[in-house]
């Protein structure tokens, strides 16, 4: 089975939904943020604080390009879409699902911005980041699901329905 790649803003539910999808479908699961932390022995926020956004994005691209898996649900970091090379690699063997949420939902869900490891440039607001990333998510998505008002169960059901329609 092809990989299922989840993209979207921080707090869209990529990791939470991804691990349950993997469990329900008997697939492996990889969270690229956890992969980066494990490889470098540091929290994402520590990498951002010491190496900046550019250094972090290099490590993220490296981690994604190193993936050679099948039958795996991959929850990407929200910034994965900044690397065309990484996204091309993920799309080669995967179906990309964009877990879309509104800016209002991001603000409601994202409480720990300073410690979460979100790639923000100096002076950039969360709203700026949202506007910058949204077209990139749209560009790479094979499927877009509006999860703004969804519970985890609703999002899982929507993903399963979309995947079933592809079979």
UniProtKB/TrEMBL annotation:
Q: Where, by residue number, does Mg(2+) bind?
A: 15
| Domain of life from the UniProt record | Bacteria
Tell me, in one coarse class, where this protein mainly resides.
Answer: cytoplasm
Keywords carried by this UniProt record? Amino-acid biosynthesis, Aromatic amino acid biosynthesis, ATP-binding, Cytoplasm, Kinase, Magnesium, Metal-binding, Nucleotide-binding, Transferase
An example GO biological process term is: chorismate biosynthetic process
Instruction: State the pathway, as annotated in the record.
Output: Metabolic intermediate biosynthesis; chorismate biosynthesis; chorismate from D-erythrose 4-phosphate and phosphoenolpyruvate: step 5/7
- The entry's substrate-binding residues are 33, 78, 133
On whether DNA-binding is a keyword of this UniProt record, the answer is no
Q: List ligand-binding residues for ATP.
A: 11-16, 116
UniProt xrefs under Pfam families: SKI (PF01202)
**What does the UniProt cofactor note say?**
Binds 1 Mg(2+) ion per subunit.
Q: What is its EC number?
A: 2.7.1.71
Q: Which family does it belong to?
A: Belongs to the shikimate kinase family.
Q: What does this protein do?
A: Catalyzes the specific phosphorylation of the 3-hydroxyl group of shikimic acid using ATP as a cosubstrate.
- What is the protein's name according to its record? Shikimate kinase
Organism in which the protein naturally occurs: Ruminiclostridium hungatei (Clostridium hungatei)
């Amino acid at each position: 089975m092809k990989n299922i790649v989840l993209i979207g803003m921080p707090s869209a539910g990529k990791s939470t939904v991804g691990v349950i999808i993997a469990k329900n479908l008997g697939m492996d699961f990889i969270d690229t943020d956890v992969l980066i932390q494990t490889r470098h022995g540091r929290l994402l926020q520590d990498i951002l604080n010491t190496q900046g956004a550019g250094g972090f994005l290099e490590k993220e691209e490296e981690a994604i390009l190193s993936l050679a898996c099948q039958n795996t649900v991959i929850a990407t970091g929200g910034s994965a879409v900044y690397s065309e090379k990484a996204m091309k690699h993920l799309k080669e063997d995967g179906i990309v699902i964009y877990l879309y949420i509104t800016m209002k939902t991001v603000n409601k869900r994202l409480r720990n911005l300073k410690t979460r490891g979100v790639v923000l440039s100096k002076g950039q607001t969360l709203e700026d980041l949202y506007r910058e990333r949204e077209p990139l998510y749209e560009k790479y998505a094979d499927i877009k699901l509006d999860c703004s008002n969804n519970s985890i169960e609703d999002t899982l059901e929507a993903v399963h329905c979309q995947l079933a329609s592809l079979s």
